[in-house]
Amino acid sequence: MIGRFRGTYRRLRLGTRLALGMGVLSLVVFGVVGTALSTYMRDYLERQLNDQMKLVQTTQAKDAQAHGTVERQPYYGWYTAVYDVSGDSAVLRRPSDVPKDTVQLTSFAESLARAGATEMSHTTRIEDEGAYRLRACKIGQDVVLVTAAPLEDIENTMDQLVTVQVVAFALALLGLVVFGRAVLRRGLQPLSDMAHTARGITSHDFTDSARLPVRADRGNGGPEVEELRTAFNTMLEHIDDSLAVRTEAEQRLRRFVADASHELRTPLMSVRGYADLFQYAAANEPGERDRHLARLRAEAARMGVLLDDLLLLARLDAAEVEAPLRLEDADLTELVRQAADAFRATHADRPLTVAAGSGPVRLPLDVLRIRQVLDNLLTNAAVHTPAGTEVRVEASVAADAAVVRVTDSGPGIPAADQERVFDRFFRIDKARSRDRGGSGLGLAVARSLVRAHGGAIEVRSAPGATTFTITIPLRRRT
């Protein structure tokens, strides 16, 4: 039974539970207040009655001393008796206005005599009469006056007081629960709104969009609810950003896998085709066989370069578990000059200007990887510009960092493509052949290598001037 009650209580809404809890607490408070008020009122009425009996007995004592008994009854329903006490026994004087059952009055007179007191008060029940307040006092040598006053009026007053309290407290409790529940429901409405918002999130379709279109609206509820609402919206913003990043990463991963598959499919198909040609032409002249073997080696080498770039990018992405760089103290100026000499040897039709300064710029570098970055940028300047386009390489130091700029005076990069030139497998000219345009991994590899050195690479382009800027700190951050 208790377990069922607990289960039912736990299934109630928070506002109802708070209202019931407030009602129980109020009931306890009402009970304590009512008990204290009733006790105080009864004590007050009994004290008033005692004072009244004392005043009446003062007059009755004079009457008893003058006539031997009390001849006049002070109030309706009161009883008065005069006793002669001898030892432990009391004898009632006649005539006396007493009830049929005088046992309680006689016993009380004897108790006063035994106690040796001058006056005593006591509450008792007289048979066929009800509850009475008894007061005894000595009015002479071995003479005791006993007065009995009915408590019916006090009992009726207390019954009426208790009835009024019960009705008033019941109405107050009912109103407190009903209106309290309404107030609590209004105060907890923002929580219900947030729950509705959460249900809206669970029903949202993230297939096409990772953005959460719902937020907890502002409203009444006090500082605590406002604080909870702010925390809730902050959490939604964080989830929103995380979902956006995850969705973008998933889209980039799918695009990367699709591009990698497409890039690998082309050389694989070429290898397969030349292998078939080589098989059918195995008995032909040696010159034809050598040509097919050369094409097979070229496609295999091209596929090997592509796989090496992909492997390098994967290792750079996992830099926290693997360090793909071999750092040593090197002169960046010398590396720039070496890259410029190699560029002049392979692209004699491109005028190249080098501004590397007179002094060395030493910093921790992976010589092979930085040289790979420089060669890639210079090669791009040659591949994506017309013959005769001027190219300039600058090396300098600024703000505790080494800066290398590779600038060409070609047609430039469209503004819409400048933010994507470092994406993997991205080509500005989609129609450019892979033999001339590359796989689209060069700049992605360059950016990853520069970042692995703690630096950054950026591009600024306009018609007639495209500049790639590499910035590497002179001291590697730990």
**Total number of β-strand segments?**
12
Helix content bin: 55-70%
**Low-confidence spans: pLDDT under 50, at least 5 residues?**
431-437
Question: Roughly how many Å apart are the termini?
Answer: 66 Å
Percent range for β-strand residues: 15-25%
- Taking all Cα atoms into account, the compactness measure Rg is 54 Å
Transmembrane segments: 20-41, 162-184
Organism: Streptomyces ortus
InterPro entries: HAMP_dom, HATPase_C_sf, HATPase_dom, His_kinase_dom, HisK_dim/P_dom, HisK_dim/P_sf, Sig_transdc_His_kin-like_C, TCS_sensor_his_kinase
Domain Histidine kinase: 259-476
List its salient traits.
478 residues, 17% strand, 5-stranded antiparallel sheet, alpha+beta, 11 helices
Write the SSE topology.
Blueprint: H1 2-11, H2 14-67, E1 79-86, E2 89-92, H3 103-115, E3 119-126, E4 130-140, E5 143-150, H4 152-187, H5 189-202, H6 222-280, H7 286-317, E6 328-331, H8 332-346, E7 352-355, E8 362-365, H9 367-383, E9 391-397, E10 401-408, H10 434-437, H11 442-452, E11 456-462, E12 465-473
Helix pairs in contact: 2-4, 6-7, 7-11, 8-9, 9-11
Task: Describe the protein in words.
The chain is α+β, with helices and mostly antiparallel strands. The strands form 3 sheets. It has a 5-stranded antiparallel sheet, with helices on both faces. The chain has a 5-stranded mixed sheet with strand order 7-9-10-12-11. It has 11 helices and 12 strands. α7 packs parallel to α11 (442-452) and α9 packs antiparallel against α11 (442-452). The model is unreliable at 431-437 (pLDDT under 50).
